[in-house]
Design goal:
The structure holds 2 protein chains of 2 kinds.
Chain A (H helix, E strand, L loop, with lengths): L4 E3 L2 E4 L5 E6 L6 E7 L5 E8 L2 E4 L8 E4 L6 E5 L8 E8 L9 E2 L3 E5 L1
Parallel strand pairs in A: 2-11
Antiparallel strand pairs in A: 1-3, 3-8, 4-5, 4-9, 5-6, 7-8, 9-10, 9-11
Chain B lengths: L3 E4 L2 E5 L4 E7 L6 E7 L6 E7 L4 E4 L2 E6 L4 E6 L8 E7 L7 E2 L3 E6 L1
Parallel strand pairs in B: 2-11
Antiparallel strand pairs in B: 1-3, 3-8, 4-5, 4-9, 6-7, 7-8, 9-10, 9-11
The chains are: A mainly beta, B mainly beta.
Chain lengths: 115, 111
């Protein structure tokens, strides 16, 4: 009974490189959420996706950030031309139904460090 | 959209005492209020949740209360133990915007 899986767990990038973060939701869950957590801060919503659709991306920066959840395979959060301020923990969560009023199951996170 | 405020940011209590963490929310359409516990370097995990059709819910040493009129909800932990040390996040949701999290409370249990 695998929970939410994220990889890599740790990612180091130099400024200007691309970061690709992967999230495999709980089997059978079709709703995926991405959050960013800065040190000593809470979880900031970034984007909410269902299979092949972006439902809400209001928390995601307009430039350099994109997300997808294809019909097959994991959800991907992509950060282009990373900057030092992108260093954070990125958590993915999934739920079987709309996660606004149901439990969201979190992955272990990807800790991105930008040098 | 929803705005969730959480207090205090840090709470230190003696082992065996009770701890209370409080949150307020702004969106009257919110109807789901979960609490997550995050240990250092780990993922957030749900410990208890409450829906707006009830005022209180209890699970062993953990309880949550909800006051819809005042738009606030609280987490109560009794007989605290060292393993309760963690960061606790409240959240509000159920409206159109999904879950909005508070900034977290770092709970320290003093031996």
């Amino acid at each position: 009974n695998a929970g939410v899986m994220q990889n890599p767990r740790h990612l180091v990038r130099r400024r200007g490189q691309e970061a690709r973060l992967r999230c495999s939701p709980v089997k059978g869950h079709s709703h995926v959420y991405w959050y960013r957590q800065l040190p000593e801060e809470g979880l900031k919503f970034m984007v909410y996706l269902q299979k092949e659709n972006i439902i809400d991306e209001s928390g995601m920066p307009k430039e350099r950030f994109s997300a997808e959840f294809p019909k097959e395979g994991p959800s991907i959060l992509r950060i282009q031309q990373v900057v030092r301020g992108d260093s954070a923990a990125y958590f993915c969560a999934s739920s079987p139904n709309f996660g606004g009023n149901n439990e969201q199951f979190f992955g272990p996170g990807t800790r991105l460090t930008v040098l | 959209g929803e705005n969730v405020e959480q207090h205090p940011s840090t709470l230190s209590v003696q082992e065996g005492d009770s701890a209370v963490i409080k949150c307020t929310y702004s969106d009257s359409a919110s109807n789901y209020f979960p609490w997550y516990k995050q240990e250092l370097g780990k993922r957030p995990q749900l410990i208890i949740d409450i829906r707006s059709n009830v005022g209180e819910k209890k699970d062993q040493r953990i309880a949550v209360t909800l006051n819809k009129t005042a738009k606030h909800f609280s987490l109560h932990i009794t007989e605290t133990q060292p393993e309760d040390s963690a960061v606790y996040f409240c959240a509000g949701g159920g409206g159109a915007d999904g879950l909005t999290f508070g900034k977290g409370t770092h709970l320290i249990i003093q031996p």
